[in-house]
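Hi there,

I know you've been waiting on this one. I reran it after we fixed the sequence typo, so this is the corrected version. Both the input and the resulting structure follow.
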Amino acid sequence: MAFGGVVAGRAVAGARDGDETPLYGSRTYDEIVGGGPYGTAAQAPIGIDPRALDALTVPPPRDDAPPGTVRDLTLDVTEQRLEVGDGLVVDAWTYDGSAPGPIIRATEGDRLRIRLRNRTGRPHNLHFHGAHSPLMDGWEPIPPGEEFTYEIEAGPAGVHPYHCHVMPLAMHVARGLYGTLIVDPVRPRPEAREVVLVLSGWDPDGVGANRVYAWNGIAGFYDRHPIRVPVGDPVRAYVLNMVEYEPVASFHLHARTFSIHPAGMGEDPAAHGDVVTMGQGERAMLEFTFPERGRYMFHPHQHHMAGAGAMGWFSAI
């Protein structure tokens, strides 16, 4: 299914999934990797819908509302049992039932009114990165069963995480309470195929150490179901590091380089490369194109993360 021009669909590998033109000459993908997904240490749940992460992979499109538009949203904090890998179920804390939470999008200068309802038996809250009044900074706990409405002006233009800020903070983020806010500049950026990739870890044993790693919440998902984009189209990736318990992570793209906008800010890129390194809570907007048909791997250059679920593919078609 297409959202904003990008499809997070079933894998294109050899002659599988209805595509009869092999991407690797006479060899199939299974022949290359030995008969299974490349990231064999942590696989996506068997039988998962190839479109399961569409809403977390492709952001809602920018709209044409005038700057200063008031945008009303409601987020419910709930506790959910989520299957985040094949056979791996966690007791997650979520915004609106998913981890990451919903992608929020606004234009710089818009007024965001976010009604947060705590539907759990423990305190939670909502803190946005970016610039806003300290009265709406979101560090005060919201008791169980209660709610609060945050009002902030969206900005600056870029990509910013939001997350729970109740102590112990690491636990609340590691259990799933985080998401993405995209703030568009008033003057629109050039058209591109857009994708959001939020890196996180899962600690199902509650010991303060991650067992698996995931892009957009499910380990191995983009290994099994690559992100499909047309050859030659510009791609804009909003990449966030929300891994708890480890000081640094990165994003590496195989066979291509990209322009880097730290925190998604600024009209001109700050650097160009094929690896961007981020501390906890850091993020970047990356822009690139795929000039020829094929599979392009992406993963953290912390290889233990890649091997434990955080390896995926773009499929240029």
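Quick highlight: Residues 1-36 have pLDDT under 50 and may be disordered.

Best,
R. S.
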